[in-house]
Amino acid sequence: MYLSREEEKILQGESGEAKRLAMKILCALGDFFHAEKLIKIESSHVSGVSYKTGGDALIEVLENFVENKSKTVITTSLNPSGMDRTNWKEMGVKDDFASKQNKIIEMYQSMGIFDVCSCVPYELGNVAKIGDHISFSESSAVTFMNSFFGAHTNRESGLSALASAILGKTPQYGLHLPDNRIPEVAVEIDAKLTNPTDYGLVGYCIGKNFSSKIPILQKISSMDIQQTKSISAAMAASGSIPLFYINDYACEKFEEKDLEKIIIDQKHLEELKEDFAPTSPPDIVMIGCPHASVSTLKTISELLESPVSNRMKFWIFTSRPIRLVAESMGYVQKIERMGAKIFCDTCPVVCPMPSFDLALTDSIKAVHYLPTMSKIESAAGSLEDCIKIAMGRKLQ
Question: Could you report the per-residue pLDDT of 17-36, keeping only the tens digit for each?
Fold first, then answer.
């Protein structure tokens, strides 16, 4: 990979050990993917925050950066941690875990990273415009940023996103190149999608069928932010799709060509719903993977008309800034009066969950990851159905 004279000096350590370490990481990445050069990026989002997934090895890596006085030079946000930083005891988190988790977050803070601890940084100010080059490492956010904003990012690791944040650069390969952003398959949606969970089911099916190929969705109107969050998260979970297009709304221009095609019709959607339906009564309902927005918390507060059943838990996950806004509107107070719990800074996938037999969620991403990451069987339903079951009501 070509380096400018200034970049060579950084690699030789003339700008300090912190930048040398970061440059070494990006050079190794660029060489592996045959990148021609480094390019400037506008922002970064760093994963690898939860002590549950990173362990002591993560602490050791971050200590090396902190000891060398590493600092980010661009807007950089942080992914969810392994616990609610205020109410971690209520989640059943142990003291030793909490101590190490706090240390991880403090080290990221010392580097100038915004500790939003959220998988939806685009709802918290880390946004982009069409054509911006960025470095994101949360899979669902990668798909969202490429597809909804038209930004350009590969699916980075937490370490490469951190290195990019320290240098303000990333190797020019993959989705940073226009030729690699062209649709490869067509998906005709011939089904009625009535809520974000339906979009998640479609995204899961696409990811499972096409792995990492870039799809263009046909016969579908433009999506709102909740629908895009859901389909992006599911595509990235069942496959590793980093970008999709909508036929009538594309951020980028490309030459139309004959593509491999599948059709997802109403029958197919109903079969998917049946596959993910609960086979027994759940003992916990979980919302917020990706993190719940203010509008989602508003909807929950309106639909939660009676107290949560004493036979189950109702946990909702969001970011601390979103919770503060929802508190100012009275949504949090209403939800918690009804017996639900709203946790911040973490999510059901990366926190050490207590033992539950069956979790019901509106998130197809959570359904995919909970059995392996948390050893909890899971099922999916719409937000409305999840809330009804949380209140102990039977579905019609």
Answer: 999 999 999 999 999 999 99
Q: Centre a 10 Å sphere on the Cβ of residue 57 and count the other Cβ atoms it contains.
A: 8
Q: Classify strands 341-344 and 313-318 as parallel, antiparallel or unpaired.
A: parallel
DSSP-assigned letter for residue 181: G
Name every residue whose Cβ is closer than 8 Å to that of residue 101 and which is 6 or more positions away in sequence.
50, 51, 81, 82, 83, 85, 88, 93
CATH 3.30.499.10 fits 5-178, yes or no: yes
Give me the count of residues in the chain: 396
User: What is the value of pTM for the model shown?
Assistant: 0.95
Phi-psi region of 152 (alpha: psi -120 to 50; beta: other; left: phi over 0): beta
The pair of three-digit structure tokens given for residue 371, joined into one six-digit string: 């059995």
- CA triple 346-349-391, angle to 5 deg: 85
Q: Which two tokens stand for residue 358?
A: 């069956």
What Cα–Cα distance (Å) separates residue 214 from each residue in 196, 211, 236, 286, 294?
Answer: 21, 9, 11, 30, 30
Q: How far is CA 277 from CA 27, 357, 359, 380, in A?
A: 46, 15, 11, 6
Do residues 359 and 286 touch, judged by C-beta distance below 8 A? yes
Q: What is the pLDDT of residues 227-268, one digit of tens each?
A: 999 999 999 999 999 999 998 676 777 776 788 889 999 998
Residue 36 CB neighbours (<10 A): 12
Sorted by sequence, the CB contacts under 8 Å of residue 300 that are 6+ apart come out as: 287, 292, 316, 331, 335, 340, 383, 387
Tell the CATH superfamily of the 277-390 domain. Answer: Aconitase, domain 3 (3.30.499.10)
Confidence of residue 220 (pLDDT cuts 50, 70, 90): confident
Distance (Å, whole) CA 361 – CA 365: 9
Q: How far apart are CA 23 and CA 13, in angstroms?
A: 9
Average pLDDT score over residue span 166-190 = 96
The domains of the chain are located at 5-178, 182-275, 277-390
Exposure string over 61-70, b if 16+ CB within 10 A, otherwise e: bbeebeeeeb
